[in-house]
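Fold in tokens:
===
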Amino acid sequence: MTIPSHVIEMLKKVRGRFAAEPIAQRMLPSDAEFTTLRPQRNATQASVDKYWARLHDPASQADQDALADPLTMANPDQFSANIENFIGTVKVPVGIIGPLRISGLNANGDFHVPMATTEAALVASYARGAYAATKSGGITAALLYEGVIRTPAFVFDNLFNAGLFVEWVVREIDALKAAAEGTTRHGKLVSVEPIVDNNVVFLICRYTTGDAAGQNMVTIATNALCEDIAARCTVPMKAWYIEGNFSGDKKASFLGLVTGRGRKVSATVTLSGAVVEKTLGTSVQAMLDYAQVANLGSHLSGQLGAQAHFANGLAALYIATGQDAACVAESAIGITRMEARGDDLFCSVTLPNILVGSVGGGTSLPSQSAGLNILGLKGEGQASALAEVAAAVCLCGEISIVAAISAGHFTRAHENLARRK
């Protein structure tokens, strides 16, 4: 067996870096005034200045001016509920697409959609997809299901006690529901499903969360449920954990694909052959041919679902509207379908795990609130519509990228929009 030359070079660098001096000694703080940052939530001008004073880079004043700009510092306390150790805000470019016509169970009308991204060509692509969809009559969207989950884990000595615990939970479900719902005005515990693995029991606790994305809501509610179990359950328990890493929180998972962890939405549009040719610069058959190859690639690579790039649209929309951007990791799974309908092209997406809210989290911050206002989906009663818009946006992105690759335009578009400044 031959060891590749790059591996040998890497080993030489490691030896040269770490052999000369014990790493533990080298990593000891040398500054007598060295102190770690303690989490501080209440943002003030004084606290911001204190943190910037710790940064000794000569360019830090320019950096401070960029992040702690006058508009941000006019009221730094408005960010206190969303971040600790506040030093400023980042300005992400925001583009707009639309009008995107949607006929949904909850979202109805022509929407202008803000998208925050630093990736050139992204907004242009989604705008093209939105134009093609609207020219063909608009997108139909439907919220099919909702239920945010938290999955606490309980550890017992043996399988027998795990079984007794499940029996106890079934008997006490009404009391546990009351304990959980006692922590929230909006959350409702709709189901508790036990999953047993020998001496460990996971409880899939599923909630509706009103107009909030609900991550914190279900955590607090489930903690109350677990504390009630710990206080009253007669089955000997070794330990319990608020999350057993079963829910798929901020991770792509088969559970999220099959049952969802947020809001499940399907969105469809039938593109006329004329729109495909004139607007997208390709043909229905060319898009179908590429879609078949892309679907094969999804399966061979082990993708959870089969789609092109849901994450692009979701990340841009999430950032623009104050959603938890890390939830893109679990939201960006699902299925894209493209099928012939005579001379036209049926296009569909199903996203089982959209985690969005029109209240709570970052939705009340100035820029993000403005993004929701542009959509007309700020505040109570709008979360379901926002989820349908998110799915419709993803459909626009799927249409555009499949058209671009099938026509051989994908690389040229990125060269023109991204590389040629």
User: Anything to note?
Assistant: Residues 94-146+263-419 form a domain with the 3-hydroxy-3-methylglutaryl-coenzyme A Reductase; Chain A, domain 2 fold (CATH 3.90.770.10). The chain has three domains: 45-91, 94-146+263-419, 148-241. The CA atoms of residues 43 and 130 lie 40 Å apart.
